[in-house]
Structure formats: structure tokens, C-alpha cells
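Anyone up for a design puzzle?
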């Protein structure tokens, strides 16, 4: 069948069951947009390409399939970079389509030329440049396969402008054979399972550490079943938040630099750590030399590069999390290894009781922790919460209990401010029947606030809660703690007025002055048909505690300061 390159792309995207694309057109992608115009693909016009990538990422994390974004050549493509880096660090499946100058002009510093393939290589699973329209079906099929298999991640495809116009007989994509890449079965090796079973059966104080890989493999149910069978408490990384309902008796919440005291202490006191789909990042482990020094470690991860990278492990299992957890549960059940309440579970209860009072907030004014607890009590269990980055992110991680997987969306590895709003828009597009909230800071919200225009124009009603302290809060906290209160360039001043800003875009803006007003505004937001922005003034002296200072072990926690 003879098609132009642009129409072949649209045809290939439809075959991959793509329903929506986030992006902004430009000179080099005009023919692609002309083909979109004739199709039934939904295109969401963003106001910045970075937001297009974040929206595709938010969409992917909620939907569990690759999100698609697109940008023109040069600055359009380079504006995608932060969003692609976020997706890469958090193993999120995103496919980016970029335009490029015509083939004869490549390498000649043509107008709006940038080597986006070279730029994107370190922050994608792969970056292609298509040089003939005949390559399109196989390339797009390959991109989606790479993005959504093994350890997931972003893939970029760059199209010179003349390839969009080129007309060729397009053959259907064939069965792919990608050199150097094979889709792993995900089945755990029997020998590794045998060794893991031995450690689990002989352990007295097991703990499970769950990361984002649990969500990626849809393994939450299997995780909970195994934890209940062996009576192992479950702590999560930031990316693993939601892998077990945080109201579950075995849930310890998040561990790490700003982790909960009970999670950090339990991890240090355990004699067995079962790490599932996590990479032992510095924010989770504290001082690496001290982490897990009293424990044997089983590490389950689909990516062999992560095994032993940061922490020496006793049993490596390179496999799919869901399949491995299911196999372990089955084998343990067969040998009658179900445990009841014991000394370890009693100790975990003691730790929870010991630290419970540390999270109570008695001071006057709107307190972030209490606001997050109120939010949880008002909104449905399946509501989706995205976050910005900084103090707002940690307050949400510490105090907002997540009840279902894929309902807490945040920039973990890269920590990109500005992620919250566009990610919430992508999440709402992925799941329009569920409420979506963005918990943000004023500094981060300002970075991508222009895409309120996208939410309003496209009829995407998300609710943003801005923890407004008029400073770059996390940086200021570190300046307070480690720079003797020398607050260098972290004061944001009194602009903008977020209520007026929201109204200027056609959204609803509400300034909050009390907890009662907050509850009322959240309830109204649940029924709103337009985006809502809640401006919640808090003190610039509010800090995130607990905190493990850099270079310290998980037990060396600062609670106040």
C-alpha cells in the first residue's frame, strides 16, 4: 500500500493502539500534523514540549502502556529532554516523535537543527533516526516493543522532514528481530528460587522493600500475599509507594532520607531484606556502607544491571517481579511456611507506636501533614495524586496514604520540578473518570503553569494544591540546616497571585485560610468541570521531617530543627 511517510506513521501508531498524542507542531512536523488532522487520533496541544513529555509520562504510568509525545526539530526536540530524562530514571514507557531538518541539510547547521539522537541517547532506551519512509512500520513497532518490555523506558524516533513527504509502498511490520535485544520471559531461575526459599524459611526478621518495579509488573497483589504469608513488613521506595495499601497492618510506608522512622529502623533491624523492583538509590539506603549490614539480601529485578550495582546481594533474581513473587508464594505454601504473629511483628508494632507521636502537628497555622491527611479522608481511594518535587513531594509521600497501585505519580530519580501539573493532565486523560490531584509547591508550579491553558482548552479538570511558602522550600531547608541560615536566592517573593493566575487561564482559583476552607474547596473541586487551583499559604519555616542527613545511616534521623 502506497502512503506518505507521515500517513505511515499515523497508520503504525494506530496499529500500536495509540489513542492520544501530546505535543506542539512546528515547521518540520507540519506534514505529520496534516496526517493527524485526517485521522481519529486525539491530539492534545500543549503549551510547552517539556509538558508534552510529562503528560505522556503521567498517561503511561496510570494506563500501563506507552504514552506518546511529539515535537518539532531543534528547540522543540530539545525541550523534550527533561521529560525524557524523568521517564528514563523512573522506567516509564514513553515514545517521542521528533521532526528533523531535511536529510540533505543534516550536519549543515540548518535552521532549527539539533542532533536530538545524540542528545537523547543517554536518557532513552534507544534513539532512532529514520532515513526512509519504508523503515517506518518496523521502526515504530520496534520503538513500542523497546519502551514496554524488560525494564521499561522512553524511546525517541527522529524524522527528517523529507521522510514525512516521501511516498513508498508500505509493507506491514514484520516479526522483529532486534540485534542485541531479547524480550525476557521474566521467569525466575529455579536455583535462585531455591536459595531464596532457604533464606526466607531460616529468617526471623524479614522485611520486603518494594520499588517501582512492583507497579511496572502489576505485582501488588502478589506482593501483599507473600508479605502476609511470611509476616514480613513492607517498606517502599518513593517510586514503590502504593504497591501495598498503606493502611495495611504490614505497611511501614516509605523508607530513606525522608522515610518514616518505623520503616528505616525495621530495615536496619531485619535479618533478611527482600528487595523487589528497586535499585537501592542513595535516597532509599542512606549511607551505603551501613545499609543492610545485619541482613542477607535477596534482590529481584528485571534489569541485570541493577543487581549488585549499589549493594552487594546474597541471592540475585533477574526476573519479573510478579512471576517471582508468585513463585515464592507457591513454593512457601507448599512447604507450609505460613507464619503467625511473632516477636518480629510485635517489634514492628512497637516501632510504629514509638514514632507515631512524631508525626503529630500541634503548632498553629496550616500544616502540610495535616492537610495531606485531610485530603486522604475526603477523596476516593482510587483518586490519583501527582506531585511536584521538593518539600511538597515529601509531605505527600510521608502523610498521604496511598491505597491502590498507579495512583501516586511523582518524579523520583530525576526529581524534576514542574512535573506535577502536566503529569496530572496526562493522568486525567488516561483515566477521565477518576479525580486527579496535583500536590505542588509554588516554585515548581510556576515552572509549568502555562499548561493550565492546555487543561482549560482541552476540558481536563485536575485540581492543583499549591503549598505556597513563597520560597524554594527544600533548598531553603538545607540552607537552614547546613549553611547556618544563609538563605541565598531562595526567596520567590509575593508573585504571582495564584488565584488571579488561575482565573486568567479560565480555571478556578481559591485561596485557603483554614482547614475547613480546605475541605470545602477539595469537595467542590471533586465536582468541578474546569481545572481548580488551591492556593494554600504555609510558613516558609515549615520543614520536612524526619530527615537522614547526607552521609548518615538510616537510624541517624533528625526529627526537629
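Challenge accepted. My sequence:
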Amino acid at each position: 500500500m502506497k502512503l506518505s511517510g507521515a500517513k505511515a506513521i499515523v497508520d503504525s501508531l494506530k496499529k500500536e493502539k495509540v489513542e492520544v498524542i501530546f505535543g506542539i507542531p512546528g515547521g518540520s512536523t507540519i506534514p505529520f500534523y496534516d496526517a493527524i488532522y485526517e485521522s481519529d487520533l486525539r491530539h492534545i496541544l500543549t503549551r510547552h514540549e517539556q509538558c508534552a513529555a510529562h503528560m505522556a509520562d503521567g498517561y503511561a504510568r496510570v494506563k500501563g502502556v506507552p504514552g506518546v509525545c511529539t515535537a518539532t526539530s531543534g528547540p522543540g526536540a530539545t525541550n523534550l529532554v527533561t521529560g525524557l530524562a524523568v521517564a528514563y530514571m523512573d522506567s516509564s514507557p514513553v515514545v517521542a516523535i521528533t521532526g528533523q531538518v531535511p536529510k540533505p541539510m543534516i550536519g549543515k547547521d540548518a535552521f532549527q537543527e539539533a542532533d536530538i539522537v545524540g542528545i537523547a541517547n543517554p536518557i532513552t532506551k534507544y534513539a532512532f533516526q529514520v532515513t526512509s519512509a519504508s523503515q517506518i512500520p518496523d521502526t515504530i513497532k520496534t520503538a513500542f516493543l523497546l519502551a514496554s518490555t524488560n525494564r521499561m523506558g522512553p524511546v525517541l524516533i527522529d524524522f527528517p522532514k523529507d521522510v514525512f513527504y516521501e511516498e513508498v509502498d508500505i509493507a506491514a511490520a514484520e516479526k522483529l528481530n532486534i540485534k542485541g535485544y531479547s524480550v525476557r520471559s521474566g521467569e525466575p531461575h529455579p536455583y535462585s528460587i531455591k536459595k531464596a526459599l532457604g533464606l526466607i524459611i531460616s529468617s526471623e526478621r524479614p522485611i520486603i522493600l518494594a520499588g517501582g518495579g512492583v507497579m511496572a509488573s502489576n505485582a501488588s497483589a502478589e506482593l501483599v500475599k507473600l508479605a502476609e504469608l511470611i509476616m514480613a513488613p513492607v517498606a517502599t521506595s518513593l517510586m514503590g509507594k502504593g504497591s501495598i495499601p498503606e493502611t495495611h497492618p504490614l505497611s511501614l510506608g516509605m523508607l530513606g532520607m525522608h522515610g518514616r522512622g518505623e520503616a528505616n529502623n525495621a530495615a536496619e533491624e531485619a535479618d533478611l531484606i527482600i528487595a523487589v523492583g528497586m535499585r537501592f538509590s542513595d535516597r532509599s539506603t542512606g549511607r551505603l556502607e551501613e545499609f543492610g549490614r545485619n541482613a542477607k539480601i535477596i534482590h529481584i529485578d528485571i534489569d541485570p544491571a541493577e543487581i549488585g550495582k549499589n549493594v552487594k546481594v546474597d541471592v540475585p533474581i533477574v526476573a519479573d517481579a510478579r512471576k517471582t513473587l508468585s513463585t515464592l508464594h507457591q513454593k512457601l505454601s507448599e512447604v507450609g511456611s505460613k507464619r503467625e504473629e511473632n516477636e518480629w511483628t510485635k517489634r514492628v508494632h512497637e516501632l510504629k507506636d514509638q514514632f507515631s507521636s512524631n508525626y503529630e502537628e500541634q503548632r498553629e497555622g496550616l500544616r502540610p501533614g495535616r492537610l495531606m491527611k485531610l485530603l486522604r479522608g475526603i477523596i476516593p481511594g482510587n483518586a490519583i495524586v501527582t506531585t511536584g518535587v521538593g518539600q511538597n513531594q515529601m509531605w505527600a509521600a510521608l502523610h498521604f496514604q496511598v491505597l491502590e497501585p498507579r495512583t501516586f505519580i511523582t518524579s523520583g530519580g530525576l526529581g524534576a520540578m514542574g512535573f506535577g501539573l502536566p503529569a496530572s493532565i496526562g493522568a486525567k486523560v488516561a483515566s477521565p473518570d477518576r479525580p486527579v490531584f496535583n500536590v505542588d509547591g509554588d516554585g515548581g508550579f510556576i515552572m509549568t503553569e502555562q499548561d493550565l491553558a492546555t487543561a482549560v482548552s482541552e476540558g481536563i479538570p485536575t485540581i492543583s494544591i499549591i503549598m505556597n511558602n513563597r520560597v524554594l522550600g527544600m533548598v531553603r531547608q538545607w540552607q537552614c540546616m547546613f549553611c547556618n541560615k544563609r538563605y541565598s536566592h531562595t526567596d520567590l517573593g509575593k508573585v504571582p497571585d495564584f488565584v488571579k493566575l488561575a482565573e486568567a487561564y479560565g480555571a478556578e482559583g481559591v485561596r485557603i485560610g483554614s482547614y475547613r476552607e480546605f475541605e470545602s474547596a477539595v469537595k467542590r473541586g471533586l465536582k468541578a468541570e474546569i481545572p481548580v487551583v488551591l492556593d494554600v499559604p504555609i510558613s516558609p519555616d515549615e520543614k520536612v521531617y524526619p530527615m537522614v542527613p547526607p552521609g548518615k545511616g538510616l537510624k541517624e534521623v533528625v526529627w526537629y530543627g
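A detail worth pointing out: The mean pLDDT is 96.
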